[in-house]
Amino acid sequence: MGAVTDDEVIRKRLLIDGDGAGDDRRINVLLKSFTKWCNAPGTPEEGFTQYQRMLSTLAQCEFSMGKTLMVYDMNLREMENYEKIYTNIEQNITSAHEKIAECKKEIQRAKRIRKNRQEYDALAKVIQQHPDRHETLKQLEALDKELQQLSHIKENVDAKLELRKKQFHVLLSTIQELQQTLENDEKSDNDDNNQESPAENGE
C-alpha cells in the first residue's frame, strides 16, 4: 500500500471532522438530542431549553463549515497565485538563457574585434617602416578610423555584457528568495497541522 500524502490526510479529516474542531461529534450529539427531544416526555420549558441547545449546536456546525469553506477558497487562490509565480519564473529563466546565449555571441564578436585590432596594429607598424607616400597616409587614416569604430563597438559590447550579468544576478536572487518563501510557507503549514493533531486526540 502506497504512502498516504498530506493532502489525502487533510481531505479525510475535513470529510470526517469538519475543520478539525469536533464537528462529527457535535452532529452525533445533535442527532441523539433531537431523537431524545422528540421521544422524551417533559414539560414545555424543558423541551424549549433542549430545543435552544440543539439550535446552538447546529449554529456551531454551520459556522465551522463556513470557516472551512473560506479556508478552502483561500487555499485555492494561493495555489493559483503560486502557479502564476512559477510560470513567471520559468519565463524569466528562459529569457535569462536567451540573454546568456546572446552575451556569449557578443563575447565572441569582441574577441574577433580584438584580434583584428592586433592585426591592424601590426600592419600599421609594417607600413610605418616604409617611406612615406600619399597613398600610404590615406590607408593609415582609414585604418585609424576603423580602429576607433571597432574600439567604440567593443566598449558598447562590454557595457551590454556587464548589464546582462547584473540582470541575471538580480534574477537569480529573486528566484532564491521566492524558493525560501515557498519553503517557509510549507514549513508553517506543516507546523499548523502538527498543532491541530494533539487537539483532535484530546477530544
TrEMBL record:
> Where found, per UniProt?
Nucleus
Q: Which Pfam families match?
A: THOC7
Annotated segments matching region Disordered: 181-203
Q: Which keywords are on file for this protein? A: Coiled coil, Nucleus
Q: Which GO terms describe its biological process?
A: mRNA export from nucleus; mRNA processing
Chief subcellular location equals nucleus
| UniProt signal peptide | none
Segments forming a coiled coil: 79-160
Q: Does the keyword tRNA-binding apply?
A: no
Q: Which GO terms describe its cellular component?
A: THO complex part of transcription export complex
Superkingdom of origin: Eukaryota
**Family to which this protein belongs:** Belongs to the THOC7 family.
As for what it does, the entry says:
Component of the THO subcomplex of the TREX complex which is thought to couple mRNA transcription, processing and nuclear export, and which specifically associates with spliced mRNA and not with unspliced pre-mRNA. Required for efficient export of polyadenylated RNA. Plays a key structural role in the oligomerization of the THO-DDX39B complex.
Q: What is this protein called?
A: THO complex 7
Lineage here is:
Eukaryota, Metazoa, Chordata, Craniata, Vertebrata
